[in-house]
Amino acid sequence: MLEEIYEEHYKKLMIIPFAMLLFFSSVLLSNYLNKGYILERDISLKGGTAISFQSNRSFDLEELKSLSVQLFETDDVVVRELKDISGNLLGYDIEVGKELNTTEAINSLSEALGIDVSQVSVSQQSSTIASSFYRDVLKAFPFAFILMSLVIYYYFRSFVPAISILFSTLSDVICILGTMSLLGMRMSAATLGALLMIIGYSTDSDILLAVNILKRREGRLMDRIKHAIKIELTMDAAAFTTYFIMYFLTNIGVIKHIAFVLMISVFFDTINTWIQNAGFQRMYLERKGR
Predict the structure, then answer these.
(1) 41: Cβ–Cβ under 8 A, 6 or more apart, which residues?
(2) Helix (H), strand (E) counts: the chain
(3) What average pLDDT does this structure show over 257-279?
(4) Is the pLDDT of residue 290 over 60?
(5) Which of 1, 125, 202, 277 fits 168 for a cystine, CB–CB 3.0-4.6 Å?
(6) What is the CATH number of the domain that holds 77?
């Protein structure tokens, strides 16, 4: 049943990835028009102060955030619990979106919470360095897409697979950033690293599809697509399982963040590759009469 729908109504199915792309693009555009950015950055990309303290006492996160806002005189505060793999409370992490005096921050927080100063640690990220790093990484993304397109064009000797693969990968990135925005997640250095991994992963699946559709000649077109789908779904299942394990078997925030973003990417990449990109390439072959 599903095979018949996929084979006979693939053009109608392409509405799904385009609707997702339109929706998440509107989310990011709304953020940019109303807030001046598509996704809020954390202190690793804009600078600020990270305060961590060990405690087995349970604090209400909203109350701890309100207290931090008062102490550090800024609304740009994020509070997280720190737990081990078993879920036992280790302490709390407070991110403040401005550079603070280390000694004053430790003393004021320890006094307000009634904890020893030795339990509090502070690290700072320079706003100048963080913003410079963010700008430099953003410059790398266009080069990544351009070089990727050139390599694909050189291999297939056609603009169609290069454009369709580029569009599919870009759709993945937009959908992921839109989802992060809706979930209230912030962009971090870990996010940028995960996105670069996603570009490579998505391009790999798109090229696998393009080789089976455009390069191979034996058998029916749908048989070649089914063969590629079986291989790719096996890869997706293995990747998702790995990211799932990464997410639930670590208490390191950076790894959890990367794993979550990569899990989202597997879902969107499956839709954009096998509905959107496959549809483009099938239409291309039908016009060529192959």
Answers:
(1) 134, 186, 187, 188
(2) 12, 4
(3) 89
(4) no
(5) 277
(6) 3.30.70.3220
Q: Are residues 80 and 177 in the same domain?
A: no
State yes or no: pLDDT of 237 exceeds 60. Answer: yes
Q: Are residues 103 and 153 in the same domain?
A: no
Cα distance between the two ends of the chain: 25
* pLDDT for position 1: 62
- Compute the average pLDDT of residues 229-258: 87
Torsion of CA 53, 59, 61, 65, to 10 degrees: -60
Is 213 part of a structural domain of the chain?
yes
Q: Does any domain span residue 272? A: yes
Q: What share of the chain is helix, strand, coil (3-state, %, to 5)?
A: 70, 10, 20
Say which DSSP state 158 is in. Answer: -
User: What residues make up the domain containing 72?
Assistant: 48-125
Q: pLDDT-derived band of residue 13, with 50, 70 and 90 as boundaries?
A: confident
The pLDDT-based confidence of 242 (bands split at 50, 70, 90) is: very high
Identity of residue 203: T
- Tell me what the mean pLDDT of segment 35-50 comes to: 88
pTM of the model: 0.86
CA distance 23 to 239: 26
Which of 232, 184, 182, 191 lies closest to 209 in space, CA to CA? 232
Number of compact structural domains in the chain: 2
- Of 141, 146, 205, 127, residue with least CA distance to 177: 141
Question: CA–CA separation, 38 vs 69, rounded Å?
Answer: 24
Task: Say if 138 falls within a structural domain.
Answer: yes
- Tell me the pLDDT band of 209, cut-offs 50, 70 and 90: confident
Name all contacts of 254-258 with Cβ < 8 Å and 24+ positions apart: 254/188, 254/190, 257/185, 257/188, 257/190, 257/191, 257/194, 258/190, 258/193, 258/194
